[in-house]
Specification:
Layout lengths: L1 H20 L4 H18 L4 H6 L1 E9 L3 H17 L6 E8 L5 H13 L4 E4 L8 H9 L4 E4 L12 E4 L2 H20 L3 E8 L5 H17 L1 E9 L4 H14 L3 E6 L2 H13 L7 E5 L3 H9 L4 E5 L1 H16 L8 E3 L2 E4 L7 H4 L4
Parallel strand pairs: 1-2, 1-3, 3-4, 4-5, 5-11, 6-7, 6-8, 8-9, 9-10
Antiparallel strand pairs: 10-12
Length: 353
């Protein structure tokens, strides 16, 4: 009997303790933890396959040797860090040729990515045609390709999405601004101008310089007396611009069509003592070009969101390769014209790098 009584007393004590706890903070704590678990489940509700398998997304750009492409890399790595919450074994690699004109090196980098069986490729092609065969090889291997910055020629179904600035529209915007600056300086929309470009045949260059020249021809009496190609090399652009300025002392305007070319152009203008005298428009927006806008060497720069190309490129590749989603075939990553009046604005600061 004593043993049974002891057992009964013990049970009654446990019940008393439980009932006593109902009035404490213990119950809300348990509810809070249950809510937290629900949140975690909602955030990590990606396909189970993606979380288990992992894999590589290869980001392959024209070159790693410029601030523009390094900003693409920043965007790509930020996307990787976010997506690792869904797929911890995800790896985003970033590679580029030694120079934008070294097309064969870029082809070899893409070949290597295919051979090691990457999940997806994010590619900024250095040539509109030369990369077509290797992209077709990736497609045949079941590797989705996301194109950024410069569009490839050939069948559109060779790639699943194209993310870039509308380069033709950006070129038009640069031409419009140059006309305005020439008119402000000279009172006329006539005179000789020069185009300092980068790599002939690259998709972005074709659209950008094409849009610029078409707008100039249709909306002014300005004449493009020369188009130079620097191969996206700043010292080359500096030397070329110096020669153009010396050969054309009557030049009223000049356009630098990408980051290293515009920097070289700006430095040549400064060395010639023409800052603020000749109308000059650049393209892209690193700190050097931004300073040239502030000091008046350049009147404006068209700035793309290179960060978005890397960030959205990787996110889009992940959606296709890991989640099996259908994505938009073209995404305009945008640009803004930055000048001395808006350079400190939030909109400008978000794209300058």
């Amino acid at each position: 009997m004593n043993k049974k009584l002891f057992t009964l007393v013990s049970i009654l004590m446990v019940i008393s303790l439980v009932l006593a706890g109902c009035g404490t903070a213990a119950t809300p704590e348990v509810i809070e933890k249950e809510v937290e678990v629900t949140k975690i489940v909602e955030v990590t509700s990606a396909p189970e396959m993606a979380a288990e398998e992992g894999g590589e997304i290869a980001v392959i750009v024209k070159t790693g040797n410029s601030s523009f492409w390094q900003n693409v890399q920043t965007g790509a790595m930020d996307a990787q860090n976010e997506l690792r919450g869904l797929t911890p074994k995800l790896s985003v690699t970033f590679l580029g040729a030694q120079s934008e004109s070294n097309i064969n090196e870029q082809i070899n980098i893409v070949e290597s990515a295919i051979d090691r069986g990457v999940k997806a490729i994010v590619l900024a092609p250095s040539d509109t045609q030369a990369l077509i065969p290797v992209i077709e090889k990736a497609k045949a291997a079941g590797i989705p390709v996301i194109i950024i910055d410069s569009l490839l020629e050939g069948p559109e179904d060779n790639y699943v999405s194209f993310l870039a600035t509308d380069n033709y529209a950006a070129g038009e915007a640069c031409a419009k601004r140059l006309i305005e600056e020439v008119e402000a300086n000279t009172g006329s929309d006539s005179g000789n101008i020069a185009v300092m470009s980068y790599v002939a045949g690259v998709g972005s260059e074709i659209g950008r310089v094409g849009g610029f020249k078409d707008y100039i021809a249709a909306n002014s009496n300005l004449v493009v007396v020369t188009t130079q190609y620097s191969n996206a090399d700043m010292p080359t652009a500096l030397d070329q611009t110096t020669n153009v300025l010396q050969a054309n002392p009557d030049l009223v305007g000049i356009f630098g069509a990408n980051e290293p070319t515009a920097i070289g152009m700006g430095r040549a203008i400064e060395q010639a003592g023409l800052a603020g005298t000749i109308a000059a428009i650049g393209f892209d927006g690193n700190s050097v070009l931004a300073e040239m806008v502030v000091n008046g060497t350049l009147q404006a720069i068209a700035v793309q969101s290179s960060y978005n190309m890397g960030y959205l490129g990787v996110k889009t590749a992940y959606e296709v390769a890991f989640e099996g989603k259908t994505v938009e075939h073209f995404v305009d990553t945008g640009f803004i014209m930055v000048d001395a009046n808006n350079i400190d604005s939030e909109e400008a600061q978000n794209v300058l790098y």
